Amino acid sequence: MSRYEIVYSKQPPKLDPCDGAAWAAADSGTIEHFPWYKQGDRQATTFRALWSDDGLYLRYECQDRHISAVTTETNGPVWVDSCVEFFVAPNPKKPLNYYNFEMNCVGAFLMGTHCDWGEGYADRSRDLGIQVATTVPGPTKDESPQDNGWTLVARIPWAHFEKDAPHLPPKPGDVWRANFYRLGGKTDPQCACWAPIDYFKPQFHLPQFFGQIVFVKRP
Fold first, then answer.
1. pTM to 2 decimals?
2. What is the distance between the alpha carbons of residues 209 and 105, in angstroms, rounded to a whole number?
3. Which residues lie below 8 Å from residue 112, measured CB to CB, with a gap of 6+?
4. Which of 95, 125, 202, 209 is the most buried (most CB within 10 A)?
5. How many domains, in total, are found in the chain?
6. Distances from the Cα of 168 to the Cαs of 36, 108, 171, in angstroms?
């Protein structure tokens, strides 16, 4: 099973995708599995994650020669754009209760809940303080010969998981289940994952294939 350690940071990183130094303490993960590959370039995607007292922080670095986005509204179809995603199941006793966060290259995002207590795509971004920042100016993006990749950072407050997580903030050693994804784009669309998926067609909503994310504190 894929395993990734999320390092605690007393000082949360600023939501600046150009500030790579703030993520030096975070391990690097790779979205390198293409279960449904047919043709085109398998473009590199790396991610990093940190946790702090106020929330979970994510960073994606995407090689991309065809950057595009048309979705600007919250909970719109960001998956058709150049997009990264994070799916997470915070309760080990309920591994099928999971949340999805999908974010396109211009910072529009979708958030969904798939739990035994409720399911849906309500916009709670203002209430919970979810934030996304990217290196791609919006509000939309057309493909360009100058396209050469993009970086996205995001903050997800712990309050989003208050109905499922055993501890908030997590305790060192807590293990959640999750997967990191890359998707979308008009030309050469990517459909890749960090933890491998064995399924007959493209589908990310499969918590049984999530890997482990472990919350740690290091000296």
1. 0.96
2. 25
3. 99, 100, 119, 120, 121
4. 209
5. 1
6. 36, 26, 8
Q: How far apart are CA 106 and CA 134, in angstroms?
A: 6
pLDDT higher than threshold 90 for residue 119: no
Exposure b/e, 8-34, CB count within 10 A at least 16 = b: bbeebbeeebeeeebbeebeebebebe
Tens digit of each residue's pLDDT (9 = 90 or more) over 120-141: 887 666 667 899 999 999 999 9
Decide if 177 contacts 92 (C-beta within 8 A). Answer: yes
Collect all residues with Cβ–Cβ distance below 8 Å to 126 and sequence separation of at least 6.
none
Residue 193 CB coordination number (10 Å): 26
Number of helices followed by number of strands (H, E) in the chain: 1, 13
- Find the CATH number of the domain harbouring 39: 2.60.40.1190
Residue range(s) defining the domain that contains residue 165: 3-216
User: E-strand spans in 123-189?
Assistant: 131-134, 150-157, 175-184
Helix (H) or strand (E) holding 195, with range, is: none
Contact predicate 18/135, CB 8 Å? yes
Encoded tokens for 117: 């207590």
- Rounded to an integer, the average pLDDT of 88-107 is 98
| pLDDT tens-digit readout, 68-85 | 999 999 999 999 999 999
